[in-house]
Amino acid sequence: MTKLSDFQAEALTGGELDLAATDGKVVLVVNTATECGFATQFPGLEQLWKELGPQGLVVLGFPSNQFGGQEPGESEQIAEVCERNFGVSFPLAAKIEVNGSGTHPIYRWLKNEKKGMIGGAIKWNFTKFLIGRDGTVLERYASAKKPEDIRGDIERALAEPGATAA
């Protein structure tokens, strides 16, 4: 079975994201954009990360500029805006593509595991995927679904036997 730790991704700040550290954890993967109207979800994602991280939740942001050019900045700018404007401390990957021929392998896998309203394609920024401790993609949430609205699903996934704390 394929799982998140089978992939590689570059960290926004350089180097590799430690995806091996997601084994046994519940992971929320989100394609982000700092200039998107849904960027107001960053604080909610950060709150989940801070409050549920000790129980085994990992939030991973994957910036993408594929929807309305809403993530035009370079890595340093994205990191600065995320930290300064939204207080983000959860891990962010380097900017990727989530649709088309240049789709990052993680997103190819996620979209194959959980199709959305328009098939496999990502419709917009802040589409979220919840991955269980066993590596199974449990759910896919549309952009408009706020982080606080999926907290119950995350808590249920964290309560599964064998989940490891951070």
From TrEMBL:
InterPro entries noted in UniProt: Glutathione_peroxidase, GPX_AS, GPX_CS, Thioredoxin-like_sf, Thioredoxin_domain
Active site, UniProt feature: C36
An annotated GO BP: cellular response to oxidative stress
Cross-referenced PROSITE patterns: GLUTATHIONE_PEROXID_1, GLUTATHIONE_PEROXID_2, GLUTATHIONE_PEROXID_3, THIOREDOXIN_2
Gene Ontology MF terms in the entry: peroxidase activity
Keyword Transmembrane helix: no
A Pfam family matched in the record: GSHPx
PANTHER family (UniProt xref): GLUTATHIONE PEROXIDASE
Family: Belongs to the glutathione peroxidase family.
Protein's name according to its UniProt entry: Glutathione peroxidase
Organism this protein belongs to: Agrococcus baldri
Gene that this polypeptide is encoded by: gpo
